[in-house]
Amino acid sequence: MAGNNPDIGIDEFPFLAHDKPRPGQIDMIRECRESLRNKGHHIAAAPTGIGKTAASIAAALEVAMNTSTKPHILFLTGRQSQHKIVIETVRKINSRLGNTHRDIKVVDIIGRESMCEVVDIQTGRCLCEQGSSESARARLKEDVRNYILQEPRHVFDIVEKSKTFGVCAWQTCRSAVKDCDILVCDYNHVFAEQVRENSLPSMGVSLQNSIIIVDEAHNLPDRIRMSMERVITPIIVRNAAMELEEFMGSLENIAMRSSSNSSPQLLEDVSWAFEVIKLLRVKMANYFKTLHEKVNEDEESIVKIDDFTKLIHAACNEYEGVSGQMKLDSENDFQAKSPTQNRFEKLAYTLSQVSVEVEDDEDSSEPDAHRISHIVESIIRFGNTTALCMVFSPKGKEGKITTHLLDPGILSGPLFSKSAGSILMSGTLHPPSMYADILALPKNLTTKTSYVSPFAGERRPVLVARDVTTKYNQRSEDMWNKIRAHIQALIEHSEDHIAVFCPSYRLLDEILGGIFFSGVTKITESRDWVKDDIDRVVAKLKNERKNGNRVLLCGVFGARLSEGIDYDDGVLGSVVCIGIPNPPPSVLSDSLKEYISDKFGSQNAWRYTVTQPAINAILQAMGRPIRSVEDRALILLLDNRNDNRIYRECYPHAMKMNTSNDPNSTKAFAKRFFRRVKRV
Ligand code: SF4
User: Which residues contact 265 (CB under 8 A, 6 or more apart)?
Assistant: First the structure.
């Protein structure tokens, strides 16, 4: 492997941020580059420490700079900390390039809600440009635009500069994108349909001429699924009717004020949709009653898409029958409706046009008319396939129906195919072939590699306890006591702080809540923690270490403490993973299994939907403490199923598992490890 010899190929990579490539990095750059040259896609299961951000950017820049169409590079990430890393990486590239190449230009953008600080909550009006005069604004915007492109800047520096100049940061950033080489932004800009359609063309970016880098790509399938999820309830239908009425009023006002009567068709369609949705509300309420009757309080049920569409047709028929009658009564007004008119498309489109002021809280940030539009649109596109699933849950005030797109590949496949190539990378893209399947990457143009961790295995040993499990039928206070005994043994014979992760908040509370462990102070993650609470955790751990105190940090797999947070500077000495975070049985997971079985074969159904996602969540947590070659940490897996064939095959094959039969062997193992292996 070339990556073992860092002296090879330094001159070969003009856009590498480091003076010396790291082990494994050379292979990754070469493989990404090769793929991109063919407009292909490379899946890089690259563990922490390989330098994957620098590797992906080096490969993408080299290919982009040697392509006549000069594609944009879209670096997609869901983490703000990663935005900073990309900016720092490009700064290093520019300083290494010196006079040999022009500087690389990068634009860093985040969601509008995070960039917009000066919005009048009452009216929703922007106030950022209040301080600048209309006549000077164009020039000021140009100045900020030049500032953005002059050198790599963090988005918050741009927001500050824009504030000082009295111009709109959001708009000015977007106007700079067409002239940059790299755009750092959220996945949504490519993978959330409404965002993509509103965002890329208006920034002068075409997907066909873009190389996509997806950071932490293991999150992409769920991000796509979530972006397609919508809820409908009778109240949402009622609200949509109110929004349509309000919108109709605004259109009528505009029509009255303007002699040109600019949008009579829209007004007519909105009035039609208003009547249909009013009728749908009654039908939906009755339908919910029948759904409630069929399930117990804690059960869910599948909603037949046919039944749901019949409700919409019935509402349309009823109104058109009534209005047709009205029109027949007044013969002069009668106009036959075109039989080919697709009422679903008309309804989805009309609802999507509704523009009303919405409350300024997260739940209502999308008008309810748009939610229903999205659902109708999904039915049009996927209703004839098994990829769309609707689930009724009786919980809450009136119950709810949620739409789920089971197959993210239906959306991502065509997007990747359209692009000028892509790199998908993460430490837990394991196995890469599963992600290639699920995201529907073009088969003949996709390469996949699992890179070897540059960190010696002996600095991060994995110990599996054989005497404990959180398997449902073996849960008991005795079992929890054994788990606690392993943790106490580790505390007594380890150094530094310890992080413990559980499959759910309920188990976290059951196993660790109210339990005293001697020698440590417990900090427990809460569902209510906001970003600031999370941001403070690492600083707090460092501070406690300085004061000679040890902390037992307790969190949940897949939540904030176990993903996307860098415990740098060797602040964690051990990670304990309790149980296996298998998703609880549900009608949704059954549908997903069935879908995966039909599409990828029954042998993959369980692995793709249950075991692999669960082990990948554990792998994410396991990766937290080792952020550099100097770090060392002991990983204790408190569930004997990790040693079973079904779960074992979900771990990277190179990972060595040690076993412990009881808390005493855990104690002995920890003692040996912390005596022999020191933090550098
Ligand atoms: S940054 Fe622009 S869009 Fe945001 S509040 Fe200010 S003026 Fe409005």
Answer: none
Report the C-alpha gap between 531 and 523 in whole angstroms.
16
Of the residues 110, 125, 126, which should be mutated to test ligand 1's pocket, given the most ligand atoms within 8 Å of the CB? 126
Q: Among candidates 544, 563, 551, 495, which has minimal Cα distance to 524?
A: 551
> Which CATH superfamily does the domain covering 457-676 fall into?
P-loop containing nucleotide triphosphate hydrolases (3.40.50.300)
How many other CB atoms are found less than 10 A from the CB of residue 100? Answer: 7
Domain spanning 31-104+181-227+407-451 has what CATH number? 3.40.50.300
pLDDT above 60 for 4: no
Within 10 angstroms of residue 484's Cβ, the number of other Cβ atoms is 19
Mutating to test ligand 1, I would choose from 110, 140, 170 the residue with most ligand atoms within 8 A of its C-beta, which is 170
* Helices of type H across 354-389: 368-382
Question: Which has the minimum average pLDDT: 107-121, 537-551, 640-654?
Answer: 107-121
| Out of 79-83, 168-172, 212-216, 585-589, least confident range | 79-83
User: Position of tokens 């849960």?
Assistant: 475
Task: Specify the residue with its C-alpha closest to ligand 1, atom 2.
Answer: 168
Q: Rounded to the nearest 5 degrees, what angle is found at the Cα of 409, between the Cα atoms of 404 and 410? A: 70
Q: Report the distance separating Cα 141 and Cα 293, nearest Å.
A: 60
CA distance 13 to 61: 10
Return the residue matching tokens 């095959």.
649
**pLDDT (tens digit, 9 = 90+) per residue, 511-538?**
999 999 999 999 999 888 887 888 889 9
Cβ neighbours of 116 (radius 10 Å): 15
Whole-complex ipTM: 0.95
CA distance 532 to 294: 44
Q: Tokens for 517?
A: 């462990």
Token pair of 426, please?
């993460």
pLDDT at 672: 96
For 676, the token pair is 């022999």
The closest-lying atom of ligand 1 relative to the alpha carbon of residue 162 is 1
What distance in Å separates the CA atoms of residue 460 and residue 399, rounded to the nearest whole number?
A: 47
Tokens for 401?
């129906």
* Beta carbons within 10 angstroms of residue 376's beta carbon: 26
